[in-house]
Each structure stands twice: as structure tokens, then as C-alpha cells.
Amino acid sequence: MKTRSLFSSELSPWEEADRDDLVSARVVFNLPVDRVFEYLVPDSLRSQLRVGQRVRVPFGRGDRPVVGFCVDLGKPERREGLKSVGGLVDPDPLIDEHMLELTHWIADRYLCTWGQVLDMAVPAGVKKQAGTREMLMLQVTPAVLTQAPDLKLSAKQAAVLDILKGAAAPLSVDDLTKAAGCGTGPITELRRKRLVEAVSRRAFTGELPPGAGGREADLVLNPDQQRVFDRIAGVIRAGRHQTFLLHGVTGSGKTEVYIRAIREVVNFGRQAIVLVPEISLTPQTIRRFESRFAGVAVLHSHLTDAERHQHWRRIARGEVQVVVGARSAVFAPTTHLGLIIIDEEHENSFKQDSVPRYHAREVAERRAQIENVPLILGSATPTLEAWRSAKCGAYELLRLPKRVVGLPMPPVVVVDVRHDPISKTGAAIGRALHTAMRHALDTQGQIILFLNLRGYSPLIWCRSCGAALKCPHCDITLTWHKEQQLARCHSCDYKVPAPSRCTACNQPGVRYLGTGTQRLEQEVRARFPQATCLRMDSDSMRQPGSHDQALEAFRRGDVQILLGTQMITKGLDFPNVTLVGVIDADTVLHQPDLRAAERTFQLIAQVAGRTGRSERGGRVLVQTSCPAEPPILLASKHDYVAFAEAELEHRRQFDKPPFQHLARVIVRGPHEPEVQAAARAMTDVCRAATAAAKLPVRILGPAPAPTAKLKANYRYHFQLAADDVAPIQALWRAASPEFGALRNVEYAIDVDPLNLR
Ligand code: ADP
Ligand code: ZN
Prior knowledge:
By secondary structure, the chain is α/β, with parallel strands linked by helices. It starts with about 25 loop residues before the first strand and ends in a 6-residue tail after the last strand.
């Protein structure tokens, strides 16, 4: 691997360093310490150590051995007092030059350390070489050159020797005997003659099942798809970077365009990375890629460490054409990347909610720039961030305005439930929805019902004193799970048997209010006892594989009514679904979050996409108490552009993202006064630093976070807001070292947060 110094142009890379000179390694650690440390490379390691490998080095006062990534090699800046590298952890580099640059950028962008990013970018299974073991392998010795011609060898021995001489790497006994068509006798004899020796090598113990893909032919694109594809293909052939925003309604044939674009890069011997939300990594999606391409690696969360390691190795060796995976697949170690695609770009799961808190869209865009390849972002409901970038010309906007087979978008009926009897009885299915369900069942159609609350009821409430039962560790009401007879916290999973008396006033008469998926299921079964009904949420789908089985049952028609949470809104394509019901569109709309309107629009548009996929047609009923709210009204008209324009204008007026970048600092700890004091002190430091450097950053807060207590920690937050991320980065670099020692308090910063709870 070629290495380039990321630090200073005077440092010569190892290849050019004078052999007599000392060589030092620059090392970063998976620690919140934003520094690069320097170590001398002992002579014994000089020929083996390369940039991108991990090393074992002494660290800290006690010189305890710690593992870090070697990010550069060069002449030491000083000679005195440098400790030495203790040993190598990896036989080969895990990170190449592009990935070094990318991870360094992420650390800057998301205000964490380089070591933290590197550690995350390499899967755990790769770091611990999962699925491999030391095995004895055979190779020829140098004596073969001098002695072999003079020795009398049997035909078998000569054959074995020929195979070994021609092998690129040492072979196992098994592979060798198979190749030579002999037993172990000739090998033993060759070892005795010292022409063959055994060496210890790491090898995989299991094998991935062979991919049987690549059999199906591509479809002929329709004129809209062709127009879009031509734009993309032009950029691919020109070999340059460009980000495309592909705005296409659900079922408009976006995936088919991706496949053709991938074909284009694969034909040039390059690889493509396709990111999809984890929830969309269904067998249906995977089959679609595997049926078209021979070498597909699928990276999902159910892989074992060993399987992930195997895929990683195959990708790094260029044996894979297409990598399909969730967020972290953006770090796939492709050798000749040709294209990155992010499907369902608007999905929140593309943002990681632990350090490093990166967004895969931003990382993909940076990676595509570094490697000079196109990036395609696809969605029926793009984020306002992407929409704005397209409007101002940073992205090229491509559109697929119609569904493929000329089918119309399904009609969406907004049902105002304020005057429905259910507003008094507390039931979930209103009159109009009941009638529509009856009709769908009578005409042999299938039904999807969406509700984003799991459990039986989200509120356990005392009739006497009006108190709601809350988690003792979180500022969150407990949800009644009737099946298990437990009250559970959906944040920390605290569980108690639901009390028969109020925990506050000790009066009997506790009531369970509101409807979760369990209660909805009960109501559906009561209303339609003849129909088959299946509930899909994270409680009912705990068993591995149950998700796929459920969808398969629905596809076969064994299930008539599918009800559930987000799980059922994504990417499902069932032609027989003639009715989709949204039980309560207000749950998302009323969240205290600047993106509540955007999410409501996305939700309705996405669930609406689950119907009307065949000539049978289909329709959507949305129950709400706010029928005039723009996201609900405009989603019912399938008018994304009108919604995006209005919402962007609103955000611009109120100086909110995407017109502003935010960084949110969460301060938390077990004692509220300490947390509050620390948040105040940190905010003061930030204000002083802003003033001192005249940075164009606004500081909002501190205030208790909307969820003021979580997992036994009190939470305060403050926000840094600016037109650009650069001044926020500058402020944080200046201010955070000044926070000093904080007792019993931790803090975390989230740049461009999606979650403001
Ligand atoms: P999207 O990704 O935009 O939701 P898909 O690519 O899944 O849309 O296409 C929707 C359906 O139309 C799929 O069943 C797909 O096989 C089919 N389809 C897409 N493009 C074509 C085409 N050019 N000719 C025929 N069928 C197509
Ligand atoms: Zn809790």
C-alpha cells in the first residue's frame, strides 16, 4: 500500500526513509483523547509494520499495553523520551489511504477522535479475526532450488513439489493431497528431505455458502427511467463525482435504475455499495440484487463475527461486485469503488446514535468525493437537507414522477376522528375505517394497519389522583404489556407487575389508556373474528427469522390483516393489499421535535406506498384529529414538492436546519444539581470562547432535556447553532479542553442531531 503523510509534507513516508535513520509510528487510540502519539519502531518490526495496521504500545503512566492504529510512519520529530512499539496486532493493514482520509474527516466533522472512528470503521469480527485459526500449511524450502534436481523423487513426490512451487501461498495438507491426488506419504517424505516445510498461517475455518446469483436479465427501462439512467451513466463514464437526488414516488422503478447504474460500474471492473435501512434488508430486497449480480455481499446485523469477517475479506480482495448493507456498509473496504447508492435516504437509521455520531449520507458523500465516484440518493420523500442541496445546485435532481406500470397513486382519505364515536369509547378503529376494512375483506383484499406504539396501552393512569405511572429511572410513562402482565419502560426496559392501586395515592382504580399494537390486535380480532390477523412489532418478532416468516405468510395470503409498527411501513410490495389504515397520524405530529411535520409527511407517504401496486387498486385511510395540518393534507394529495417548499420556508424563517447546523450537547449524571451546574459552567465556557474568537455561533440553553431523566441519569442540554459547521467545530475545539474536571457528570456532543429528546 502506498502511504502518504497526513501530517506534514516534510515527513518522508517509510518507503523513502533512510534505513539507517530512526523510524517512528504515529498512533491513535479508541479513546476520547484527541491526539496522535509517536512511538519508535524497533528494527525487528521495520519491515513488517505498515500504515493501517494496529500495534501494541505502552501507554499512560503505568505503561500498560494498549492497542492503537498506526496512521503514519516517518522520521521521529524528536528522539528523546520516545517509547517503542511493542508488537503488531494485524498481519496486514486494515485501513487503506482513502479510508484514513475519510475517517480523519469524520472525526473533525462529528467532533470525536480519529481513533474512535477507526475503531468503529473496522468490524469487531475483523479485529479479532473471528472464524479463523492458526493452521499448519506447507510450502517449499529454498533447498528445492539447489538440491531437488539431484535427488531421486518418486512421480508422486515430484507432482506434490510442482504444485507447491506453483502455489501463490502455502497450502494445507488437505488441499495439497487433493490437488496432487495422493496420500500424505509423499509429503512426509519431502519434509524429511527438507524440501518442504510447515509454516503456521491463519485461515478461515468455515466457508460462506456460494452465491448462486446473476441469472436474471435486466428489464427494459421505461422512458422516464431511461432519461434518469442516461444522466447517471454519463457521469459514471466521465469518471467524476456528482451527487444525484433521485426523487421518485414509491413504485416508480428507482431500484431498477440503481441496478442498471451498478451494471455500468461492474462492467468497468469496479464495485458498488448500496446502503438501505436495516429494516429494508429483507430477503425480497436481497434476492433482487442477488438475482442480477454474481458477487453480492450482504452486510446485516444478524451476521456472526466470523461471517462478517469473511465478507470483509472477500470485499477487500475485490471478489465482490456489489455490497448491500445498512449504515456501516459505507465503510466497506472495496478495492475499486465505482458508485455509492443510498436508498430511502430520508430514513433516520442512517444516523448513528453512539460515538461517532455520523450520518451515512454525509460520510458517503465525502467518500464519493475522495474516490471521485457518483453518489445516488433515492427517496419518495427526501429529507429537507437533500432537497435544499438539490435546489441550490449542489446535487443534481432527477425525477421519476409516475409509478412504473402506469398505475395511479392510491387515493388517500383523511378521516377526522374528532366526531367519531371512538373519540368517546377509546377504541382505535373509527367508523369509516371499519367499513373500509369490511369491504376489503369482502372483496378478498389484504389490509395493513399502522400504529407506532407497541404494547397494550401507553398510559397507566390513576382515576383518583390523575397521576400517570412513570419509570423510576426515566422521565417516561410506563406501557402496559398485557400479554406478560407487566408495566414496562420502553427506554430502559424496567419492568414491574402493574399495580392494582396507584403508587402515588394508594387508591384502587388504575386505568389503562390509549392504544398500542397489542390492544389494536385485540380490537381487530373482536371486530373481524373471521379474518386472520398478524401483529408485527419488536415484541412479537423476537425470534430470529420470524420477521421473514411473517411477511412470507402475508405474501401467500395466509394472513389477511397485517398490523404493526414502523416494521411494516418499509419497502414491502404486496399486490393484493387494497387498504392501508393509519390508526393515528397525530402521534408523530405532536412530538416536540423540529422534524415532526417532516416525519408525519414521510410516514403517510411511505405507508401509502404499500398499496395500489396492482390493477386491483387500493386506498389509504388516515385517522387524525388535525385534518388541516399541512403534512397530513399534502401527503393525502401526494404533493411532496408543495410540502417541501412550505416546510423549507418555515424552517428558513425560524432559522432551523437545514439553514442552520446544530450541535447538541447533552450533560448527564445521577445528581440533578451537579448536572445543572455543570451544564451552566460548560455553556459559560462556550459563550466566553465564542466572544473571544468572535465566532458566528449562537448558544441556546442550557435547559433540562425534553426527556429530563433517562436510565437513572438527569439530563440537561444546550445547543450550538451556526450557518456552517466550521465555526461550531472551532468553538468546540477551543472550549471543550476548558471544561475541567467534572464530578459525577458526563457529556456528549451530537453534530446535526436527528433526535432531540
Ligand atoms: P421503487 O424502488 O421506486 O419503489 P421498484 O424499482 O421496486 O420501484 O419498481 C416497482 C415495481 O416495478 C417492481 O416490481 C419492479 O420489478 C417493476 N419494474 C421496475 N422497472 C420496470 C420496468 N422498466 N419494466 C417492468 N417492470 C419494472
Ligand atoms: Zn426507564
